[in-house]
Amino acid sequence: MLGLMMNMLQKITIEYDESEDRMRLAGEGGDRSCVVLWLSQRLLRRLIPVLIEMIGTKSGDSEVAETILGFEQEAAWAALEPQHPVQVSAGDTSWLVHAIDLKLMPEMTSLEFRGARPGDLASLAVDAKAMRQWLSILRGQFARAEWPLDIWPRWMDGSELAQNSTKAQFH
Q1: Do the domain assignments include residue 113?
Q2: Quick check: is 168 in a domain?
Q3: CB neighbours of 75 closer than 8 A, spacing ≥ 6?
Q4: Looking at the chain, which terminus has fewer C-beta neighbours within 10 angstroms, N or C?
């Protein structure tokens, strides 16, 4: 390892940027430093099914399992407290994410975002509820972007956020 520091994100705001045709993830670290990560549709379409599989594994009748997953998704959305968006400035670091590494821990999932340069590193650790919230936010942004929704499971369709999101964040 080259002794590189990774930005450990504590709070994020994600929104679709029409001029870039990408998702803009503004992240704030514990030291209040900010970074802007750009996520392409191609990368997200590879990541999202993996994340959904992680939170969406229910056994039994598929219709019953989908109903339970839908209720869990709605409960996570209902628990999302409004936050002020991450405020970035012109001098903050900004880069395109080339890869996302997932690390599964007993109670958390870590997403490690990597860019083209060795110093382009940021990490976000979330529990299951926060992962559900983030996925709802992403689904809403996919709809806003008019990107294909075919990767999203039916049990996420009922989420208020999935239908009404314009910009959202969690912490």
Answers
A1: yes
A2: no
A3: none
A4: N
Three-state DSSP class for residue 157: coil
Say whether pLDDT at 129 is over 70: yes
**Do the domain assignments include residue 27?**
yes
Q: Is the dihedral of CA 31, 109, 142, 47 positive or negative?
A: positive
The stretches of the chain forming alpha helices (DSSP H) are 41-55, 62-78, 128-145, 160-164
Domain limits at 150? 7-159
> Residue 131: which pLDDT band, with cuts at 50, 70 and 90?
confident
Establish how many alpha carbons lie within 13 A of residue 83's alpha carbon, considering only the half-sphere containing its beta carbon.
16
Name the domain count of the chain.
Answer: 1
The tokens describing 85, both together, are: 């968006």
52 is a domain residue: yes
41-55 vs 128-145: helix axis angle to the nearest 10? 140
Structure token pair of residue 71? 């209720």
Give tens-digit pLDDT for 134-147: 888 899 999 999 99
Q: Is the pLDDT of residue 92 over 60?
A: yes
With tokens 């504590």, the residue in question is 10
| Alpha carbon distance 135, 77 (integer Å) | 10
Alpha-helix residue ranges (DSSP H) falling in 79-170: 128-145, 160-164
